[in-house]
Specification:
Blueprint: E1 2-4, E2 12-17, E3 37-43, E4 48-55, E5 58-67, E6 76-81, E7 86-94, E8 106-112, E9 116-122, E10 134-138, E11 145-150, E12 155-160, E13 165-169, E14 179-183, E15 205-213, E16 216-223, E17 227-232, E18 237-243, E19 252-259, E20 268-277, E21 283-295, E22 299-303, E23 308-312, E24 316-322, E25 325-330, E26 333-338, E27 349-351, H1 354-361, H2 369-380, H3 388-400, H4 408-417, H5 424-429, H6 432-446, H7 452-473, E28 476-482, E29 487-492, E30 496-499, H8 504-510, H9 529-550, H10 553-563, H11 571-584, H12 588-598, H13 600-632, H14 635-649, H15 666-698, H16 707-736, H17 747-754, H18 760-763, H19 765-768, H20 776-786, H21 802-818, H22 827-840, H23 844-860, H24 873-890, H25 895-914, H26 918-923, H27 942-959, H28 963-986, H29 997-1014, H30 1018-1027, H31 1031-1047, H32 1065-1077, H33 1087-1097, H34 1101-1122, H35 1127-1146, E31 1154-1155, H36 1159-1168, H37 1185-1191, E32 1195-1196, H38 1197-1215, H39 1228-1238, H40 1242-1252, H41 1255-1271, H42 1280-1285, H43 1287-1293, H44 1298-1305, H45 1310-1316, H46 1321-1332, H47 1339-1350, H48 1358-1365, ...
Parallel strand pairs: 2-6
Antiparallel strand pairs: 1-30, 3-4, 4-5, 5-6, 7-8, 8-9, 9-10, 11-12, 12-13, 13-14, 15-16, 16-17, 17-18, 19-20, 20-21, 21-22, 21-23, 24-25, 25-26, 26-27, 28-29, 29-30, 31-32
Helix pairs in contact: 2-10, 2-12, 3-7, 3-10, 4-7, 9-13, 9-14, 9-15, 10-11, 11-15, 12-13, 14-16, 15-16, 15-21, 16-23, 22-23, 22-24, 23-24, 24-25, 25-27, 25-28, 27-28, 28-29, 29-30, 29-31, 30-31, 31-32, 32-33, 33-34, 34-35, 35-38, 38-40, 39-40, 39-41, 40-41, 41-46, 41-47, 43-45, 49-50, 50-53, ...
């Protein structure tokens, strides 16, 4: 069978163009056209195989690469490009022209179709340089050329149509002419040499070959007239001429000639000649002859009269003679015939090509094989329909990427058919997982409807395209042979293969039993061997019936269901469901598939055909079984034969003899691929026997089977078969499953574990891991070879022959299943050993599959003892599974997948700890297994062991940052502490616990707290804290809980009442306060606010106020020290803090509305919890004596309110970009008021004044404010600089910014906004004067006086004048009134020269007094009832006279005097009358 060399399809080519010579260019054809051809030579010891290929679609290029069996398959090949298309006359040989040249050990002769011959001196391909010497000679004048051959000494011989042989001596000197010799057969004269033209007396040369016989180069030539002639090239003599007795029929002609290596012992030279019959039925046959060689003075040749004829059917590709065999490569296989034997008596050995295997695996071998896959899957999984399509897709995808089926060029071409473009480098960099994702995405994209039928149809089309591309890009080209080792290989278009002999079971499965000549005995050793062989043959015929009935897809489904993780169905259900198909046919769901896919008519025909086929199978089986029973006499005899046959399927125990060097060589690739083929055959054979025996049990009543026979099948044979199935299943799994890629984050550990820096073979692992061709078996193979000390029974330095491959497979299977020395190990124990190796190399997915398969097998194994009573193997299995799941969860999984792996790891570790004998079994694990050490030795009690194991598991989960699992094992360990401690006290011969119970529990509870905090389970973390018996640890983790809550933004949990602080309230408060003092005051969330909420929740109002006041104080201090650019933000926070403190104190009785001095408490905290960081604290700040002195006394609510007012003013000033610093003096509030007035912050100014001033100080302050406000109403006082400082004007002139938005939004800026909308300074003055005149009645006077003093000619607003007049509601009493009365306004008019207004005001009141109503006359007549400022009136009169005298405004002043004189006369007369009336 063909065995592909894994990795041979990934060659990269180094291009070398041969320079062309225009003088040798020719347009016509001189030599035969080329076809797909390839050949090789083996040179050296150990041999190096130099291989060349020529492709028909690329005739100008010759591909050359070198194979060294003790090395890896080369990654680089040489592609030599010639100017013209090549003929098939290409020869490779050892360089014997310059023997001492080590840099160029090879010679290459090439002949183009234009008749140009090339000689190239080549070095090794791996070290190739472009300095190869090239010689070029045109043979076109000597053409046409029928055939050519070459020697190692530079001689090229060509055969021509005139029957002559032309010999050219090619040298490496470019200027040396080629020497021409001509060999011509002339019966009259003899052989003459030279270039003279002669008449044609012989037929044209058909083919020729050169062979070294007794050290002399002999030319063997066949002619079109049926002649064979042999020439001695060294002596230029003809040695032999013979008329061949070929086929007698007309039209038969000689076509090709092959020469074998001369046998020095028998002096025989084998020859093979191809005859072709060109009649109506074209047929070909190879005739094999023998030439006897006698050596005396000259070589004498004699033809052996015997002739061996080998008919050729279906065409041929290449023929080679190897030792005593002839190898014929045909389109459908490789045929090996023994030479010099009667062909009719001895059958040839036939080796199938890889095309058959690929077609079978991709369901392309028959029309309905792929449909059978879908139908059988539906029948088996009828109750799990959701898994049908994933299973089918997984089967096809797994087979597409199987080593030997996966082919880079074919897959890339197939993807290109679907417009999936990849560069060569990118495509070769894809791992097996990457290819799976790419193919699955393609199929999902093509199956637009998404249903199972459309997806399956896409798979069918994809597989068909892939198979076509595989055959097109990887067709056979030629044979690779080595006569020294009888090695036979196959050179394909883009890969290389070897061949191996078939196992007996393979021969039985592949051919008809009737056609087998010598039926294998399969180890039968009974006395009646002949009868047993007959019974076995009949039994196997029945097994073949079962196989044919289910088809080749059943084994694929069986394999996939067994290795799928998690399992779709139980492994126990697979065989019964397949058996049901044998008995009753496909399920109803499968029939519906036929209707939907084929239509009702075709589906009905298909159903009838299936029913007919089922009936035929049942009848044939029944007849065969009855005949078998009749021949044997009893079923027990048949079962004994079956039992002996099953022993042959068990891997044989063999002592390994592998090479001690660790290399990933070509032989390793051949071995792994051959192992997968043999394991597949053995697995399928065991499965067929299993189905056959199960079928016997199901129909036992119809075939007269006794109960004892049924019991033997069920209790002995089927368990035996199941063991065999699982052994070969695992071996096939190892040989076909790609390894995992090395994790990027785990590269350093991979480097140390694999030691790839110390061995050349291991250095290539990193780039091979994850590739389809690098399977798990390579990892085992390296371990096998490195653990051996003896040499192999065959030489690993050469490619193994057909039998050596099979022997090596048996040895490798024995090591894999039975160990190094073939010792009897249980499947569980051996699986654990293999899992160690895989874990050591990071193959976690493979370990999961391996141990899951073994676990499933053990669970269904029918044994008399419990599964766990297996010397701790069950515990080891789950321990390894747990390590595997844990590593998988750590290597990049996320979400649900990671949670599932963690859950499985926890489950496995718990099961490993609770099994029988777990302590002894797990302690015996080797340290080099790549697992974390358990760290315990000696005998301990079960509870102590579980305690230690749970602690170990907790530490491993903690190491991988998987807190969920670590927490579970910490809690589990807590449950074992008491029992372990009591057991330790009762037993003195066991390892003592080094720590007390409280210490262990404290440590475990601390771990629980840590893990729950990592998982954000804060309530559980608090429960762990209060459960901790270690007080010191309890307080440490309480502090840690607070820190974590703070860091994760969940600190509000502390003040929400969710955690019942039983006895820990003061500790919590201390921790929070300590951390608050040492935290950044601007950090969020703020711990002072948390303390405030914490205390408020506990109704500790004063403490809450204390912490908020401390927060405000620290914020003010640190803000001033750090110089924040946006001071207003900090001031806003200070205001919030002070406001919260005030609100808290308002909840306290007024007598207790004060807060404690916090300085002493803070000092205590600093002593108890020294800070780890050098932070600036309140105690360390310079220039803070005032605050320190004030903090030594209690702070009442009034002081806090005062501070709140001052801070509010400072905040508003900061919004207006005005900075003010509290100096702490008594004048600070007044200075602040002035600054507020200048900034138009009137509300805040009045607030500060009213807060800090009383009595006369308040009145003086009000006068200052209104005087300043009055000045702002004078237009000539408001200059441009003041306008620029006015935030109202800024809001009108500048674009809005963030700060200005806040300014406009502040309460005290609302008035400014109103003013900016049109309200004048006069309106502001009126508003505030009306509001605050109740505090000081003289405020209107202050305003009026300020205005007039500033501008004596200013027009007083009407509202201000009304304030003076409204002070006296009854004008009949004159100008008397309160502090702001008409008399004062009259006086102001007179003082500031406003005589007209003064006169008018006086006239107004005098006229009002005179014209009062009769009801008020009595009041006027009372004493002092009416009063006018006569002194001021007199001053007004004098001022008017002076102005008249001075000549200034004479007319106006006279007019005023006249008015004043008249009014006064009338008033005095009225006063006189009133006085008289009063006296009377």
């Amino acid at each position: 069978m063909e065995v592909p060399i894994l990795g041979s399809d990934s060659l990269k080519w180094l291009e070398f163009p041969v320079p062309s010579s225009s003088s040798n260019a020719a347009s016509d054809t001189c030599a035969p056209l080329t076809h797909d051809c390839a050949s090789s030579i083996a040179i050296g010891d150990p041999p190096a195989y130099l291989i060349y290929r020529i492709h028909k679609h690329l005739p100008h290029a010759l591909e050359l690469f070198e194979l060294c069996p003790d090395k890896e398959f080369p990654k680089l090949g040489l592609r030599i490009t010639f100017p013209q298309a090549l003929s098939s006359s290409v020869f490779l040989c050892k360089n014997e022209i310059d023997v001492g040249s080590r840099s160029h050990p090879y010679l290459l002769y090439a002949l183009t179709v234009a008749g140009v011959a090339y000689l190239l001196r080549l070095g090794t391909v791996s070290n190739y340089a472009s300095s190869s010497v090239v010689r070029e000679i045109s043979l076109h004048p000597h053409g046409p050329i029928a055939s050519a051959a070459a020697t190692t000494t530079g001689c090229l011989v060509v055969g021509r149509n005139d029957g002559s042989l032309a010999c050219f001596q090619l040298t490496l000197e470019s200027n040396a002419p080629g020497f021409l010799q001509e060999l011509r057969d002339d019966p009259g004269i003899g052989s003459l040499w030279g270039f003279m033209s002669r008449g044609r007396t012989v037929g044209a040369v058909q083919d020729l070959a050169i062979s070294m016989v007794r050290g002399k180069p002999l030319i063997f030539a066949i002619y079109t007239d049926g002649m064979l002639r042999v020439w001695d090239l060294s002596s230029h003599l003809r040695l032999f001429s013979h008329k061949l007795n070929g086929p007698t029929m007309a039209g038969a002609a000689l076509v090709r000639l092959w020469i074998g290596q001369a046998d020095n012992d028998s002096s025989t030279i084998p020859l093979a000649m191809l005859y072709r019959d060109n009649s109506e039925i074209c047929s070909e046959a190879i005739h094999v002859y023998s030439l006897h060689c006698n050596v005396a003075e000259r070589i004498a040749l004699l033809m052996d009269p015997s002739e061996q004829v080998i008919p050729i059917e279906d065409g041929w590709i290449d023929v080679k003679l190897v030792s005593n065999k002839i190898c014929i490569l045909k389109n459908n296989g490789l045929m090996l015939h023994e030479l010099h034997k009667n062909v009719s008596m001895v059958d040839a050995v036939c080796y199938a090509l890889q095309e058959d295997f690929v077609a079978d695996q991709l369901f392309q071998s028959s029309e309905h094989s792929s449909d059978d896959l879908f139908v059988i899957t539906h029948s088996i999984l009828s109750s799990s329909k959701d898994h049908i399509l994933p299973i089918v897709s997984s089967i096809i995808l797994r087979r597409l990427l199987l080593p030997g089926i996966h082919h880079n060029a074919a897959l890339r071409t197939t993807l290109l058919d679907y417009n999936r473009h990849w560069t060569e480098s990118d495509f070769h960099s894809l791992t097996a997982d990457g290819l799976k994702k790419e193919i699955l995405s393609l199929i999902e994209h093509e199956g637009l409807t998404g249903n199972s039928s459309s997806i399956f149809c896409c798979w069918k089309i994809f597989c068909a395209r892939y198979f076509q591309n595989w055959c097109k890009s990887n067709g056979p080209c030629g044979l690779l042979v080595d006569s020294s080792t009888d090695t036979v290989g196959l050179i394909r278009k883009s890969s290389v293969s070897s061949f191996r002999s078939l196992e007996d079971i393979e021969r039985v499965n592949d051919g008809s039993l009737d056609e087998l000549g010598n039926f294998p005995s399969f180890g039968l050793d009974s006395s009646d061997e002949a009868l047993d062989c007959d019974l076995l043959a009949e039994m196997l015929r029945c097994v073949i019936y079962v196989n044919q009935q289910l088809g080749k897809t059943a084994s694929a489904i069986f394999y996939e269901l067994l290795i799928s993780a998690p399992p779709v169905i139980s492994s126990e259900e697979i065989i019964p469901r397949l058996l049901k198909i044998l008995e009753t046919g496909y399920s109803s769901t499968a029939s519906m598939l036929h209707i939907s896919g084929l239509g009702p008519d075709v589906a009905w025909e298909k159903k009838l055909a299936d029913h007919k086929n089922l009936r035929k199978f049942s009848i044939d089986m029944m007849l065969s079984l009855h005949a078998l029973h009749k021949k044997s006499g009893s079923w027990s005899h048949i079962l004994s034969v079956i039992e002996n046959y099953l022993k042959y399927l068990i891997p044989q125990k063999m002592i390994q003899k592998y090479d001690a060097e660790v290399v990933l060589d070509i032989n390793a690739a051949i071995l792994v691929q051959a192992t997968s083929q043999v394991a597949k055959v053995m697995l399928e054979s065991a499965l067929d026997i299993h189905l056959f025996l199960s079928y016997l049990v199901s129909i036992s009543g119809q075939i007269n089977m006794l109960h004892d026979d049924i019991s033997k099948i069920q209790l002995e044979l089927i368990p035996m078969i199941q063991e065999i199935i699982y052994e070969w299943l695992l071996l096939h799994f190892f040989a076909t499953t790609p390894s995992e890629s090395a994790a990027i984050e785990d590269f350093s550990s991979q480097l140390s574990l694999l030691q790839i820096d110390s061995n050349k073979g291991r250095r290539s692992w990193n780039e091979k891991l994850g590739k389809c061709e690098f399977t798990l078996a390579f990892i085992f193979l390296l371990n096998v070879r490195s653990s051996s000390r003896e040499q192999s029974h065959y030489d690993l330095r050469s490619i193994p022959n057909v039998q050596d491959i099979v022997d090596s497979v048996r040895e490798f299977a024995s090591w894999t299943m039975l160990g190094q020395n073939g010792e009897s190990l249980t499947l569980l124990r051996r699986a654990a050993d293999l899992a160690f190796i895989l874990l050591r190399h990071g193959q976690y997915d493979a370990v999961e599959h391996l141990l899951t398969i073994v676990e499933a097998h053990l669970l269904k194994e029918k044994t008399s003892h419990g599964i766990q009573a297996t010397d701790g193997g069950w515990c080891i299995l789950h321990h390894l599974l747990g390590c595997c799941f844990l590593a998988q969860a750590h290597r990049g999984l996320h979400g649900v997948l990671k949670e599932r792996k963690v859950h499985e790891a926890v489950r496995c570790f718990f099961r490993a700890a609770s099994g029988k004998g777990s302590a002894q079994a797990l302690q015996s694990l080797p340290q080099e297994a790549g697992l974390p050490p358990l760290g315990i030795n000696g005998i301990v009690s079960d509870a102590a062991w579980r305690l230690h194991y749970y602690q170990w598991a907790m530490q491993i989960f903690e190491q991988y940052n998987i807190s969920e699992g670590a927490c579970q094992f910490a809690l589990a360990a807590l449950e074992q502490v008491e029992e372990a401690y009591s057991s330790n006290n009762q037993s003195h011969d066991r390892a003592a616990l080094n720590e007390s119970v409280s210490t262990i529990k404290g440590s475990l509870w601390a771990h629980v707290c840590k893990f729950t905090l990592d998982l954000n389970l804060f309530y559980d973390a608090y429960c762990a804290i209060i459960s901790n018996p270690d007080e010191e640890s309890k307080y440490i983790w309480l502090r840690r809980l607070i820190i974590v809550l703070y860091e994760r933004g969940a600190i509000k949990i502390l003040c929400g009442g969710q955690l019942p602080f039983i006895g820990l309230t003061e500790k919590v408060e201390q921790e929070l306060a300590w951390k608050a003092e040492r935290s950044d005051i601007l950090a969020k969330p703020n711990l002072y606010k948390l303390l405030y909420a914490f205390e408020m929740h506990r109704h500790n109002w004063r403490k809450a106020a204390s912490y908020m006041y401390l927060y405000s104080a620290r914020l003010r201090t640190e803000t001033s020290l750090k110089g924040y650019q946006q001071l207003w933000r900090s001031l806003k926070e200070i205001l919030n803090g002070l406001s919260a403190a005030i609100n808290a104190l308002h909840l306290v009785h007024p007598a207790y509305a004060w807060i404690d001095p916090l300085l002493e408490r803070n000092t205590l905290h600093n002593e108890q919890y020294p800070s780890k960081k050098a932070r600036i604290t309140i105690e360390d700040q310079p220039g803070n004596d005032v605050d320190l002195q004030s903090w030594k006394f209690y702070i009442d609510i009034q002081k806090i309110e005062n501070e709140f007012v001052l801070t509010s003013a400072e905040y508003l000033l900061s919004l207006a970009h005005v900075k003010w610093t509290n100096t702490g003096t008594k004048r600070a509030p007044l200075e602040l008021v002035d600054l507020l007035i200048q900034t138009n912050l009137y509300d805040m100014a009045f607030t500060v004044l009213l807060r800090f001033s009383k009595g006369s100080e308040l009145k003086r302050g009000l006068e200052r404010i209104f005087s300043a406000m009055s000045l702002k109403c004078c237009p000539h006082i408001v200059d441009s600089s003041r306008v620029g400082d006015d935030p109202t004007k800024q809001g009108l002139l500048l674009t809005s910014s963030k700060d200005e938005v806040i300014v406009h939004g502040s309460p005290d800026m609302c008035l400014s906004n109103q003013q900016s909308n049109g309200t004048s300074q006069w309106g502001t003055l009126e508003l505030y004067l009306e509001r605050y005149k109740v505090f000081h009645a003289r405020l209107p006077l202050i305003v009026a006086e300020t205005l007039l003093r500033t501008d004596s000619q200013i027009e007083l607003p009407l509202w201000l004048v009304k304030l003076f007049k409204d002070g006296k509601r009854d004008k009949t009493l004159g100008m008397t009134g309160q502090e702001s009365n008409p008399a004062l306004l009259f006086q102001l008019y007179v003082d500031y020269g406003r005589y007209r207004e003064a006169t008018n005001l006086l006239l107004e009141y005098i006229g009002s007094s005179a014209s009062m109503r009769p009801a008020n006359i009595m009041n006027r007549k009372r004493p002092f009832g009416v009063w006018f400022p006569y002194t001021t009136i007199q001053r007004l009169w004098c001022q008017l006279e002076e102005m008249v005298k001075s000549g200034y405004m004479v007319d106006q002043c006279k007019q005023l005097k006249d008015l004043l004189h008249g009014a006064l006369l009338k008033h005095l007369e009225l006063v006189k009358v009133d006085s008289e009336d009063a006296l009377g």
